[in-house]
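Quick start: what a row looks like.
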Amino acid sequence: MNEPGQDKVEIGDSGITISAIGLGTWAWGDKLFWGYGKGGYNDHDLHAAFETTVAAGINFFDTAEAYGRGRSERLLGHAEQSLGKQVVIATKLFPYPYRLSSGVLVKALRHSLGRLGRENVDLYQLHWPFPPVPIRSWMNAMADAREAGLTRSIGVSNYNLDQTRTAVEALDRRSQRLASNQVEFHLLQRKHERSGLLRYCHDQRITVLAYSPLAMGLLTGKYTPDNPPPGLRGRRFRAGYLARIQPLVAALRQIGEARGKTPAQVALNWIVCKGAVPIPGAKNARQAQDNVGALGWRLDAAEVATLDAASDRVRP
């Protein structure tokens, strides 16, 4: 379980120990959103990012069958096998609307394991709480997969407080534990902190995994109204919003300069201080090394409060 300030944490009560920061592989193989293969990064760059991450002591990698239509899993599996050093891998099932029965879960997991080149995965997660299959049915299928030895622990993703409680109750009936909930959480997205989800997960010893911890790059300090993100991200974040977040970015930069850290490293450390595990992406060795700089130190309470206040002043 993740306590603020720790460098190693346990995923729930699973006995699986991971680094306080992981690495997300949404961009690995994704052409539509991230421009894989045409956006200045390729398989060689991704392999270098993996090696840099592992060499720095980060051992947790998150992927999904939906990322790059399975290519992310293949790339991650190949990187692990090439390096010859086993890491902790989490992947996800996407509840496509044509998946009308929870019975497809084990079959989908076996396909993911084939792409990863593994006999089991360390953490298997439901990607979204979409209908028509109820949460309780999916959790029963998750329990079946764990009892079959195909996954070492069970997680969910994008579940709100009520949905998480439902998953916990369903697994309790099978004498299983929910290990994690992966949600979007960062200085520009704090609804799960305000809703009580983070507190509930902490009390229940459920690890919160924070995806998009840099708000798709907005918290790195490199984007402004005059320099928006490229591609689909630029269409999503308009100039007015980019202008509104600049005081928060300035606070990240000011704290970072005092500590010899980048705005991105400060933003990641803020999440760790909140008791969650950020899983930033990395498309090359340089980005992976920048992630590493968020480890080995902690913001103090006054710095966290300053960032909280700057975040509160940003309006959607």
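That is the whole record. The beta strands are 8-10, 17-19, 23-24, 60-62, 88-93, 123-126, 154-157, 178-184, 207-211, 277-278. The chain has 13 helices and ten strands.
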